[in-house]
UniProtKB/TrEMBL annotation:
Keywords: Signal. The gene is Agr3. The keyword Signal applies. It holds the Pfam family Thioredoxin_7. Residues 1-23 form the signal peptide. It comes from Asarcornis scutulata. This is AGR3 protein.
Length: 166
């Protein structure tokens, strides 16, 4: 009889802890509506105004991703963005993050047109960084999936500029 109870206890503990682990995993994996697939571990702000406020308050740059749901280029960039660990980690820890599916009233965010996808950086002094651009002269803030390494360099540049200028 003693043998049964000592065996039963560890089995019970395993059952409880695996249920708990599954509950925690489920909790963590709750679909985050604001991420829209760009990265569920990232804390996203809801509006441009909230992004500006958080950037100023936290002294972190704001990264704004303009995209549309039915744009194949946006979908391709989103996939590359979401799958890149370095991008995700930097976005999560060093930036205030916003992804928008509509234009803001701030004309500074569309200096060369309202194309998508486009990614722009705003520093904590609330200056839109017109000097942090992608590789295309006709669409300055456009990135393609293969440009992720270039985007990483631009993210680092946005962080460096805060240190040197503010």
């Amino acid at each position: 009889i003693m043998f049964h109870s000592t065996l039963a206890l560890p089995l019970l503990l395993i059952a409880v802890s695996s249920n708990l682990a599954m509950a925690i995993k489920k909790e963590k994996r709750a679909p985050q509506t604001l991420s829209r697939g760009w990265g569920d571990e990232i804390t996203w702000v809801q509006t441009y105004e909230e992004g500006l406020y958080q950037a100023k308050k936290s002294n972190k740059p704001l990264m704004v991703i303009h995209h549309l749901e039915d744009c194949q280029y946006c979908q391709a960039l989103k996939k590359a963005f979401a799958e890149n660990e370095e991008v995700q980690e930097m976005a999560q820890n060093n930036f205030i993050m916003l992804n928008l599916m509509h234009e803001t009233t701030d004309k500074n965010l569309s200096p060369d047109g309202q194309y998508v996808p486009r990614i722009m950086f705003i520093d904590p002094s609330l200056t839109v960084r017109a000097d942090i651009t992608g590789r295309y002269s006709n669409r300055l803030y456009a990135y393609e999936p293969q440009d992720i390494p270039f985007l990483i360099e631009n993210m680092k540049k946005a962080l460096r500029l805060i240190q040197t200028e503010l």
